[in-house]
Design goal:
The protein has about 325 residues and is of the alpha/beta class. The protein has seven helices and ten strands. It has one domain: Rossmann fold, CATH 3.40.50. Helix content is about 25%, strand content about 20%. The protein has a ten-stranded mixed beta sheet, with helices on both faces. A hairpin with a 3-residue loop joins strand 1 and strand 2. It is globular and about 50 Å long.
Length: about 325
């Protein structure tokens, strides 16, 4: 059983690390000291069978789902998806879905952020052949009440939203009907969304998840008791992160017992590279796309490209234990 973390302890921990202002506004510099435990042996293989990812780029469609968990937690979900038509350009509202079955990636935003803040990254995932669903959390999104404690509820929000998204595959007439690979699912998130993502593999383990991508995350409040079937993890963290210290993210990474890799950006901050087009975003997006192609499509050639993408322009280093 994972250790229970009280709301008071979580609030203290999150405030200590300055886990506020996770979008494009830099938070105050905070110091977090976290011992790095010995690395655990990795499980041999992920559970997704070998296959191949699409080689072409797709046009991108976008739509909004109006969800509400238990009638008291409104969760509008922005969905970017491979669409029919010519690749490139802006996402098309409610466009016809492309032909094929595409894995699903659930993305969790940071505190005081919204899914659209990450559109440059998430549309690249969609163009590569993934359906990306990103809830707007009721209390931690920009415009909410900023209740830090509500991060504890977000793993369950993501699981609920995932259930609703996967149900679209069987909904006659829906643009995504028959287009979702419902057995190939990943979770990803930035900052507080990284906490949410870690929680989906620890205290709130969702067994439907086959892989995870954690941007500038920490395990505060959700723990590091990774559970369930092996699910490869990719961590992305700036070594100059001014909000969540690099050592804190590294400490969580070291506790992952499954195939894993950590992309470290020596000059990277808390994540502004995710929000604006540039060389760093290209390295991050290309590396994460290849990781998702491998972990969700089972594409071994994509796995082989991960080190090359990570090394481009000498902007990052890769600890590769995949």
């Amino acid at each position: 059983m994972p250790r229970r973390v009280t709301p008071a302890l979580l609030a203290s921990a999150l405030l200590t690390t300055g886990l506020i202002g996770c979008s494009d506004d830099a938070g105050p510099t905070q110091q977090v000291t976290a011992p790095v435990p010995p690395t655990q042996a990795a499980a041999p293989t992920p559970r997704v069978p070998a296959g191949s990812a699409p080689e072409r780029a797709f046009a991108v469609g976008v739509r909004q789902l109006e969800l509400n968990r238990d009638g008291v937690r409104p969760l509008p979900v922005t969905v970017w998806y491979p669409a029919a038509g010519k690749p490139g350009g802006r996402p098309a509202r409610s466009a016809e879905g492309a032909t094929g079955r595409f894995p699903v990636v659930m993305f969790s935003h940071g505190l005081s952020a919204r899914p659209t803040d990450y559109e440059r990254l998430l549309t690249r995932w969609a163009a590569a052949g993934f359906v990306v669903a990103a809830p707007t959390f009721p209390h931690t999104a920009r415009g909410g009440d900023g209740n830090v404690l509500d991060v504890l509820n977000q793993p369950a929000d993501v699981s609920y939203a995932l259930t609703q998204v996967l149900a679209l595959d069987a909904e006659a007439g829906d643009p995504l009907a028959g287009r979702l690979a419902t057995d190939r699912v990943a979770a990803a998130g930035h900052s507080a969304g990284g906490v949410t993502t870690i929680g989906l593999f620890t205290a709130g383990r969702d067994e439907r998840l086959d892989a995870g991508v954690v941007f500038a995350g920490t395990a505060l409040g959700v723990g590091t008791a990774y559970a369930g079937a092996a699910a490869p993890q990719l961590f992305v963290h700036g070594e100059a992160d001014e909000v969540v210290e690099y050592a804190a993210g590294r400490a969580v990474y070291d506790r992952v017992p499954w195939p894993k890799a950590m992309l470290s950006l020596p000059k990277g901050d808390h994540g502004r590279a995710l929000l604006s087009d540039g060389a760093a975003l290209r390295v991050v997006s290309d590396t994460t796309v290849e990781f998702l192609r491998w972990s969700l499509y089972g594409d071994e050639t994509a796995k082989g490209r991960i080190p090359t993408d990570a090394a481009r322009d000498d902007l990052a280093t890769l600890d590769n234990r995949l």
